[in-house]
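Hi all, posting the design record for the shared folder.

TITLE: backbone redesign
STEP: 1 of 1
STRUCTURE INPUT:
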């Protein structure tokens, strides 16, 4: 399901997660590590979460559902000897609520050996967001 689908379930960011993202992602286009303790509770609850990274888009996109998407999260968890990466987009609704949508996993770097080095930038840019027509 795409982020602009009216049936898409967006989740509101709690204040601690919002502050962590705001404090730690100051320059668009740069990937920042985010402490997993600062993830929204629903993402912290994923089994085996070991790392999180965030990046702001250089050009935010306004979706058909009036959400302005401006950031992306990559959350990595381990499952035995396999690491699994998931993407989430972060946006602001027309009534100024900051929310996230995902989990997106349909990209080549979704699964990799937990002992293998993976360039962090390869975990980003896999979520297609379409501008409002």
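Okay, here is what came back for every position:
SEQUENCE:
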């Amino acid at each position: 399901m795409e982020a602009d689908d009216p049936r898409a379930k967006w989740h509101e960011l709690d204040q601690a997660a919002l502050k962590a993202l705001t404090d730690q992602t100051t320059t668009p286009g740069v990937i920042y590590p985010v402490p997993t303790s600062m993830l929204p509770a629903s993402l912290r609850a994923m089994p085996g979460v070991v790392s999180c990274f965030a990046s702001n888009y250089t050009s935010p996109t306004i979706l058909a559902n009036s959400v302005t998407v401006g950031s992306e999260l990559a959350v990595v968890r381990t499952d035995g000897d396999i690491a699994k990466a998931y993407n989430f987009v972060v946006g602001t609704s027309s009534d100024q609520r900051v929310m996230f949508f995902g989990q997106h996993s349909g990209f080549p770097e979704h699964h990799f050996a937990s002992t293998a080095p993976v360039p962090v930038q390869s975990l980003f840019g896999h979520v297609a967001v379409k501008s409002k027509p």
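COMMENT: The first strand starts at residue 11 and ends at 12.
Let me know if anyone wants the other runs.
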